[in-house]
Amino acid sequence: MKRPTRLLLTALLASSSLALADVRVGVVVSSTGPAASLGIPEKNTVALLPQTIGGQKVIYTVLDDASDTTAAVTATRKLIQDSRVDLIIGTTTTPASLAMIDVVSEAKVPMISLAASEAIIKPVDARRSWVFKTPQTDALMAAAIAQHMQQNKVKTVGYIGFNDAYGEGWLSELQKNAAARGIRVVAVERYGRSDTSVTGQILKVLAARPDAVLVGASGVPAVLPQKTLKDRGFTGKIYQTHGVANADFLRVGGRDVEGAILPAGPVLVASQLPDTNPSKKVGLAYVNLYESRYGQNSVSTFGAHMWDAGLLLQKAIPAALKKAKPGTAEFRSAVRDALEGTRNVIGAHGIFNLSAQDHLGLDARSRVMVQVVDGDWKLIR
Description:
Layout: H1 3-19, E1 23-29, H2 36-46, E2 52-53, E3 56-64, H3 69-81, E4 87-90, H4 94-107, E5 111-113, E6 131-133, H5 138-151, E7 156-162, H6 165-180, E8 184-191, H7 199-207, E9 212-216, H8 223-231, E10 237-240, H9 247-253, E11 261-264, H10 280-294, H11 301-321, H12 329-340, E12 345-346, E13 351-352, E14 368-373, E15 376-379
Parallel strand pairs: 1-3, 1-4, 4-5, 5-6, 7-8, 7-9, 9-10
Antiparallel strand pairs: 2-3, 11-14, 12-13, 14-15
Helix pairs in contact: 2-11, 3-4, 5-6, 11-12
């Protein structure tokens, strides 16, 4: 075989190999540790995501960060360096997601976070230009809580939340939104995700005699403050964040979380939504798909954040494939650009309209107020 012919054949084989390259998606979730009640449904949902997008095979590699920030960073580096992923979805918690930002921005790998804090995506600077998210922000949800408080004549509120970025983000948003509605924050206390007692903190909150208390926590650890409040005779309204919207919170909390009020994504009460709600159809489809595999009443809003990430990918990946091949820096950049240009994607949690200034793109349609009634979620109409 002549040399020019050999070179041409080599080039054709290389081109064919690139054309058949798989899209590789790395996933980091907290499937063990204090945030496991959030991370497990996220992990379960990965199995429901499409295996082919835009005619290209998609390979998902899932790693557990054990609800630990350092482990999340290590997992992110491993996915980028060893698995050569084109995109990362994760992780479950705010502190760990914040820690992952430097890793993905340095490697120029787009990331879709499954955590709540607005600080993950704002401001959209050089670092956060590679970072997107699907959960509603603490800012969006805190505004709904403050509105509900005002409508129910709450004048003073106490706060107890995680002593990390999640809790601090919620405290900041509560203070801002409460002040705007003439509500005074009269007590502020913090606790750790793995703490087994918050009696001291609750006694200080009660000493301020608030009309209501907001628990700035997520998952099963959010049960402890509400239980302690009730054990100490508090009869005011108890608010929780959208970080508790799963079956484990109800199961572990039992009667102790009865009456809790919180903002949540519409998927939590999809069957109770009016037919005019744009997310009802998508939410019910996800609920039915998830529960057909994992059992009745097993669905949670957290798995739906992963589902919505999958919907965004189904828009972004085909657009990126028109510009570059998977496994290349050009493809990763094209995915980032396509995510940023996503418009009118109806998800289980709302309608996504992303932009260069907003890497979430949800509005007030992405939240409803619910209450725990008889051990279940009830839409507040």
